[in-house]
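Dear Dr. H.,

I hope your travels went smoothly. While you were away I took the liberty of generating a structure for the chain from your last submission, since the lab meeting agenda had it listed for discussion. I wanted you to have the full record in hand beforehand rather than looking at slides cold. The sequence, exactly as received, is reproduced here:
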Amino acid sequence: MDHDPVTIGEFASFNIAIIVYFLGVRLNRTIAFLNAYNIPEPVSGGLLVAIVALGYYLITGGEVAFSLQTRDFLLLYFFTAIGLNARFGDLARGGVPLLKLLLLTIGFMVLQNGIGVGLALSMGQPTGFGLIGGTIALVGGHGTAIAWGPTLADSYGVTGAVEIGAATATLGLIAASLLGGPVADYLINRRGAKPDPSVHEEVPIIGLERDTEATAEVTHTGLMRSLLVLNIAIALGVAVQEVLSEVGLELPLFVVCLFCGIVLSNTVPFVFKNMKWPARSKSLAVISDLALGIFLTMSLMGLQLWVVAELAAPMMVILAAQIACAALFIVFVLFPVMGRDYVAAVLGAGFAGFALGATPTAIANMSAVTKQYGAAAQALLILPLVSAFFVDLSNAAIIWLFLG
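The corresponding predicted structure, in token form, is as follows:
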């Protein structure tokens, strides 16, 4: 007998996510495999809850759904914090690695779509079906998959494009969460990418070196200052996105907020020199870590795995090929090009995160690796800028190239 769907409210979903995060911490401490391969705590706890919900569905036929509006706002906090911590001077100093990673990413996106379209056509599916199994649902994630779904269904003959896209993005997110840690572990322990033992600094999530403000203790005033600046940047991002929409340029809100954070941090402190600015402070790092942890926990525990199980067999073939391609690309292309060192190994974990899933997954993968092996400041600086900003700008052009 089927049960009515169970929808858990916003407040309860948020607090359950905190409990599930601590559950993931306990699981990682208890199960050696999870800790050894740097599986992020939100992934461990969130997937367990998703599996329990799947069991409930299989036994009773009832569905469990969490309210996720809070999750989406935490995403804005996280990306805005990345923007606030970015300085043009750092981008200039890391320019060559940033350019290398950007070119590698664009090349991989073309490869990913080529694999998806090639396999789709070989199985009698339309081009759009292969693109769903490429950058639309994998690099692009749920938002891009849902945005492109109606167009693919109406104009390119992909029946159920929205549903297939959302399910593909879900499965990609799981693969991204599970692939990054083991790949980095292989590169570090089997390919000689050991960290520099002289580096012991605990680098915040953005991965930039600390200055005087960053060495201060976390205080209530520091937290309030960080929250205020974050909210101002987000409000500015909402206004800018509305203007861009009116002129026909559609960008995800988190990308616009990231850019507004960059602009504010590279202008306001220079105009108001005596103002305490929260960039790179421990208080901002705490908010950023909290936002990322709960965002990823809510994303994983909210997965409806029974929807994933309904993926068409052709899409499962494409996904298997994409996972193998991502792993091989990281080991044999990205790792050598980025220097065959520890930073390159950490970048490999992050690349697996956004090549198959999303930028928060990439950050969580890299954070899990750096917690175990040591800091990798450059990796935590350049990858979010590529995956969160440049990728969204170039993905649409690459998709149209294949559809055209």
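Two observations you may find useful: Residues 161-190 form the longest helix (30 residues). Residues 200-215 have pLDDT under 50 and may be disordered.

With kind regards,
E. W.
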